[in-house]
Amino acid sequence: MKQILQTLKDEGNLRQLLETHTQQKYIIYRNKPYLNLSSNDYLVLSDTMFQVEFFNEINLQERFILSNPSSRLMTGNSVDYTALETTLAQLYKRESALVLGSGFLLNSGLLPAVTESGDLVLADKLVHASIIEGLRLCRCHWERFRHNDMDHLRQLLEKKRNDYNRVYVVTESIFSMDGDIAPLKELSKLKQQYDLCLYVDEAHAFGVRGESGCGICEEQKVTEQIDYIVGTLGKALCSQGAFVICSEEAKQVLVNKMRTLIFSTALPPISLMWSKFLIDKLPSFTERRNVLENNRKLLRNALSDCPSESHILPVIVPGNFQVLEWAKALRERGYWVTAIRCPTVPKNRERIRVSLTSGLNEDDILNFISILKSCN
Question: Phi and psi of 354, rounded to 5°?
Fold first, then answer.
């Protein structure tokens, strides 16, 4: 163990768990406030006014809501799952939704459940680690196409489509490290041409993009074309768990074959109720989404060599130790940022990964831009 830890330290990859808590747009560490630029609470729904309203609406004496101490297929499938899944399906105007304990459980379990020997999965080179874990568990053949390169994907389809039964194309909508966006309209056209199943992970888009907050699929008007839309409840929605939007038939296959659902303890009713409470409000958060978009534009205009089209913006600082120094310097100036190092990202593409929220104002962004310039 000592050797492993020393190697990580020598590589600049030793991580530590820091005890923090949030307070609106700040993160508190050792009693000191830092402007939080690493949060996934993109709409600042941790605002305690929502929490107070939620607890005023529920009856805490009616039943036990702090745990579902079993899997969903045993005794853990509370009525709150049905209420939440029905709400999600209605939000997307689709047949069904299925909720799991986390995005990692969902992404690592879905593809192994629906694919078989004789199928092919083609995944974007930069899909999330949770999807890669799922691919490794698949019995079918899988490959990755160059990031957002539809020409490369088309070449693979031309060469391989007729050799396989079903072909799944997997991508994210907003990519979690560069903040760029997948060309979902082009993928939808390829779906029609090559008879594909499309799988889109909307983890970083759910809540913050689209007219009602459903994500890039809604924004690009391709929701009906996507076979599996994956979203998380633990980022913009500030809750717990994840969901997939799919057909009722696909849902039943997942219930019967998805090991990460079958062998996992169910979420507590209070988390499911909290998620439904916020999803019911999601279409009304337009102003928060507009503030987030304005913050994005302000920072994006100040950054060069930035591929981002979203509220996630990388500031490239090559080298693990160099990017750690930047993160340290920024924290000393009062900004809580995270250094993303190789091998999480490619060598020489290490970065400060900035996650903006609607709780930030224009002065916050402008001051941060000024500090960034002083670091160069």
Answer: -95, 125
> Would you say residue 376 has pLDDT above 80?
no
Verify whether residue 176 is a known catalytic residue.
yes
Residue 2, classed as helix, strand or coil, is helix
The helix or strand, by DSSP H or E, that contains position 150, with its residue range, turns out to be helix 150-160
For residue 10, report the phi and psi dihedrals to the nearest 5 degrees: -65, -30
Of the listed 25, 128, 251, 311, which one is catalytic? Answer: 128
Report the C-alpha gap between 189 and 320 in whole angstroms. Answer: 40
The DSSP secondary-structure symbol of 76 reads: I
Buried b vs exposed e over 36-72: b needs ≥16 C-beta within 10 Å? bbbbbbbbbbbeeebeeeeeeeeeeeeeebeebeeeb
DSSP structure string for 225-266 = G-SEEEEESSSTT-SS-EEEEE-HHHHHHHHHH-HHHHTSEE
User: 172-186, pLDDT tens digit by residue?
Assistant: 999 999 999 999 999
The active-site residue, picked from 119, 178, 180, 201, is 201
Q: What is the DSSP string of 10-54?
A: HTT-------EEEETTEEEETTEEEEE-B-S-TT-TT-HHHHHHH
For residue 13, indicate whether it is catalytic. Answer: no
pLDDT tens for residues 53-86?
A: 999 999 887 789 999 999 999 999 999 999 999 9
